[in-house]
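Late entry, written up from scratch paper. The run itself happened at the end of the previous shift, but nothing got recorded in the book at the time, so transcribing now.
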Amino acid sequence: MAKASKSAAPHYSFFTSVERNFDKAAPFTNIKDKGILEQIKACNSIYSMKFPVKIGDKVDVIEAYRVQHSHHKLPVKGGIRFSMDVNQDEVMALAALMTYKCAIVNVPFGGAKGGIKIDPKKLSAYDLEKITRRYTAELVKKNFIGPGIDVPAPDYGTGPREMSWIVDTYMSLRPGEIDAAGCVTGKPVTQGGVRGRTEATGLGVYYGVREMCNDTEMMKRMKMTVGLSDKTVIVQGLGNVGYHAAKFFMEGGASVVALAEYEGAIYNPKGLDVDAVVTHRKKTGSILNFPGAKNLKKSAEALELECDILVPAALENVINGDNAPRVKARIVAEAANGPLTPEADAILTKKGSVVIPDMYINAGGVTVSYFEWLKNLSHVRYGRMEKRFSENMNQNILGSIENLTGKKVTAAERKIILHGPDEVDLVHSGLEDTMMGSYHEIRDEWMANKKINDMRSAAFVCAINKVGVSYMELGIFP
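Output as recorded:
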């Protein structure tokens, strides 16, 4: 028998890693009954399916999954990803993280996740539509989708187009269901989607990191200055999440010094214009050779550059036991799902860096998905009833102040003061409040218990306590 290479990288079960983090936090929770903890940790329902779809002249058997991790609240919530890396372990792990993520940001859903093992880049839109609609039909058949049961959303390899196929298929199979639009979120706005969903996850990353950087006590503890204005940021991944996170950091006063994609990375210590980089990539097909920036042939090299804030927003396990000792960032914000291995987590914590866990920092997507779901159930657009009232009220207040003072505001100031909230304003406001409030819940838990030595464990403690309360209040446990 051939011996395994000593240099071979260890294999990580994603779900086992999530369970390890759960077990690490469990002793610090308010729940002392091991049975309740085991119930919280377990995946409640796993639907593994294979179905035939005709692709071209032959029939392909498609492998797919839908996992409902926790039924402590219904519906359950989680995205659907299209990737050749999809497997049951990954979907179970992501579903578990969704349970804890929803609990942390106080969104009343259980956790779920779905995946189809395909390469969307190698399939035509016609074939992708057939696969998506067949997958939806399988979910309907087993009661694994519905506005009060299980509400999917976009994930890696999917977007508004796929969600529109899902809602259309669901409506055709459940005619007359008045809340059918709420069976899935991340839809196009014309199909019941909500404005602000596209940038939600990246914006949530920005809000969460900004709140930490504005936390005087935390910055003092980390020996960093308060605020974002003097912070340097590196973002790995220029997909939807990475792009918007980088853009908001730049607009918020931070300096984005490096961007990494699969073809390589670029670095400029003076800062990069994120939109200009994206325009350059559209023209050339690559971020490399951007004017004024230095090329790095290996994308992973960007993770080891000097910076204050590192945002891995692409793949799982990109920071591991091998490269973690060389990561120099003081704050690592997990914009992707599971970008750090447990070994990397331990190394960075020992070095004094703070890892802001994925289950909190990338929860902007599910938060705004919750707003979309509520919009679908209420059948009214956000802002429709209050926008004009707010503008009229602001006009009256401003007029009274101008009459009393004898002074007039400028046209630009008037426009800002009189503006009533549009849907996107309300969505961004709700997201900002959610990310700020949840940060302080986690931070307070962390600060209150000196035995909790990292933010991830504190986040797990918060989530487990909330889920545990829900289970006990259901009366399942005497």
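The two ends are 54 Å apart (CA to CA).
(Scratch paper discarded after transcription.)
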